[in-house]
Every structure is written in structure tokens, then in C-alpha cells.
Specification:
5 helices; 50% helix; disordered N terminus
Amino acid sequence: MRKNVLARSLVSVTAVVGIAAGSLAGASTSFAASGSASTQSATTAVVTPFAVVNLGLNATQAKGVQRWLKANWGYTGGIDGELGPESWKAFQRHLKAYHGYTGAIDGVVGGGTVSALQRFLRDNGWGYTGAIDGQAGSGTQAAFKTFANWCVANA
């Protein structure tokens, strides 16, 4: 019996740590242990991640970006400080119109979206000076914060 309690505790702690680290977003299998040592089963579940990609922005900064997107790029979602797919669809419309984004308006923050965002941040004086490489590293995030702070101040 003590082994089951330890196993359940270990599984629970591992799941909590994994969720906190964001590493379980694509997981599809979980383990469930019953109260008896002789009865164990595996359960398959589909995990649908809620794709919030703030690229280092805090909630206030993300709300500023959402207000800018609502005022200029057809964002109709809530001003909640979480840049989810609807926020990114609106941003992709902007990036497609002016900054060379050629992908689908799908709200997915992939390399094409980040490359176009880097061009936007470089070409409009938001402080991005790095390579247009589609990687949202520290330089991209710092410039995005500069833009977001402007959005907050000018909302």
C-alpha cells in the first residue's frame, strides 16, 4: 500500500512540475493508480494547449498590445493580458500588410511570425538590432517590450 501512495505522490508532483514548466503541453498519456496494488490502469487523454505566447511581456504590457491590435487590426477578443491565438491573428494581419509575413493568419507564433515581428521591431525603431532569424531571443523580447510599453503609454 505504501508503494501506491508513493507512486501516486510522485506522479502528482511530476505532473505539477511539468505543467508549471510548460512541458506537458503536448503530452497525451497519463497514469492513474488505484487504491489496490493489483489494479493499475493507463488512461489516454488529449491535451489541447491554450497557446498564450507573450514573448516576455507581463500582463499590463500584453494588454497594451491587445488595445493597439483592437484599435488598428481587427482584434475582437478580450483585453486580458494573454496574447493567445486571436491576438496573434490580428498581429499577423499587421505583419502581413507591412512586414513581409507570408504565412497563414492562424494565430500560431512560428518562425515566420517571429521573423516578421523582428522586421517590424527593427524597421520601426523599437530597438531590435539582431538577425532576422525567426528566433524570439532576448533581443526580440526586449524590443517587443519597448513596443508594448509604448502601447501602454499611448492607449
